[in-house]
Amino acid sequence: MLFNLSPDEQQALLLTLGVSARAVGFGLPLAILVAAILSRVRFPGRFLLHAVVHLPLMLPPVVTGWLLLLVFGVNGPVGAALEKYFGVRLVFTEAGAALACLVMIFPLMVRSIRLSLEAIDPGLLQAACTLGAGPFDRFLSITLPLAMPGLLTAAVLGYTASLGEFGAVITFAANIPGETQTLPLAIYAALETPGGEQAAARLSVVAILLALLGLGVAELVGWRAGRRRT
Amino acid sequence: MTLRVEVEHRYRTGAVSVSFEAPTPGVIALFGPSGSGKTTVMNAMAGLLRTRHVRVNLNGVALQMIAPSQRQIGYVFQDGRLFPHLTVQHNLHYGAKRSGARKPGAGQDDVIALLGLSALLKRWPHTLSGGERQRVAIGRALLRQPRLLLMDEPLSALDQARRDEILPYLARLRSAFSLPIVYASHALDEVMRLADTLVLLESGRVRAAGKMTDLVSRLGLPLAMREDAAGVLLGRVFDHAPERRLSAVACGSTVFRVPMLAVPEGSDVRLRVLARDVILATNEPRGISVTNMLEARITEVLRIEADHAMLVQLELVGGGQLLSRVTVDAAERLGLRHGMVVLALVKAVSVELLA
């Protein structure tokens, strides 16, 4: 291998990939739902939903992490319930790191999906209606396939962004090697350690390569979608 | 069997309040300029528009009570609206799959043959020409097995050549399926070719409604005042005379001779005679090239001051209506007036066969 990553560093890399996969895996379906609601339905609490979803994009990530602690922490309303009924604890765990990443990348994914949903010609949905498709049928057979490039872009963007999440993760899940220490946290830890520049450099190169790969995949998705439409 | 429609809708800029009734099956044309309410009426019928009031009663069934996706109203949109992520074949199947057809594929071959779609099945919508796209859209709507077909200016986005390519398909459609069709258009020639019933719309209201052949030649309606005003006659080819290179078409007991037609004897045809091509005579002229000399009674006369012209509505003694446009001077010389019997002279080459 080009970069001789130490076992700890390899662990950090695998952990990061896994955490991001979970963040996207759980976040994407939810993001599709929220994007569909925001783009289609007009209801009283619409602005509130919009604000809650997009807040992590505007807030300092540390604040987002702290808010997560308040809600999902051991004494938080949701955190306590999760622990009591399911025996699940999120703070300082890998699942918690995934949740922090999910919340951070959620607005990115919602935005990308919403744009592609709103680009769909409503006339096509009318046509589908006259051809016998009910609302759910139309969503599955017309909306989703036409929004597919946007969904893929959202997934790739979200995944790539998730790899780099720092503030919210370290605040909510802490920096525990092998448990919550993702790539950026490992780099930060290495820089804090005397003589750790080598390790930091190796991990940074990995991060750069992952970012480039993500960008390449996103481009590919966009290009293929563009080719089929015109 | 009838189709009864009532639609009321209010926009910020105006209101649509339309009701009409027409025999079915047959083609009901909604004719009027853009903004006259054609699309509003159709969208309301299909359930795509929430309106104050809509009633669609087809042969005793109240369609407005049925959910839009279950109404079985086929809709061909002006812009085709093919699904870009599906091939032509899958576009065609989209409605068929959801029609709950007892025999899947029944009628599919007929529709594909009628519209000439077999060579297009594997193609993607974006590779089709405008005309091909509309043919696929029509096929898709038909395969839904609709009880009523709406067509909203299906040809208006096409150039003349493409329109001429599709019009024969539409004419065939009219006779091949006993399906009520509501056809919105602002092109008079399409209406004359296809319509049985005509509903004239003007700024959201019905100006007149009735048999197409009656309305096109009714004085006082805007159609008769147009440059291309014409009488339309429904007839049947009953004889070819190859030695004279003429065909005979019977409209009631009126016989028109026209240049030899390429359709078999017994075919139903529509003939159009422009008002400005009809010459009136009080005596039978001799030594004249005109082939058709038809006895007719003047049923109405209208003076058009601006053009120094006179529009004359004629009831042919053997059946059928014509319009004649003559100068005021000619009308005065001949003393044309209501109730008078004259000869309508129509050159064989002026009788136009509509597809």
Order of helices and strands of chain B: EEEHEEEHHHEHEHEEHHEEEEEEEEHEE
Overall 3D form of chain A = globular
Instruction: Give the class of chain B from helix and strand content and strand pairing.
Output: alpha+beta
Helix content estimate of chain B = 10-25%
- Which structural class best describes the helix and strand composition of chain A? mainly alpha
Which percent band covers the strand fraction of chain B?
35-45%
Characterize the structure shown.
The complex is a heterodimer of chains A (230) and B (355). Chain A has ten helices and no strands. Chain A has helices spanning 7-40, 46-58, 61-72, 77-86, 94-118, 122-130, 135-163, 167-172, 183-192, 197-229. The longest helix of chain A has 34 residues, at 7-40. The relative contact order of chain A is 0.15. The model of chain A has no long low-confidence stretch (mean pLDDT 89). In chain B, β9 (197-202) and β10 form a beta hairpin. In chain B, α2 runs parallel beside α4 (130-143). The longest helix of chain B is centred in the middle third of the chain and has 17 residues, at 160-176. Chains A and B meet through α6 and α7 of A and β6 of B.
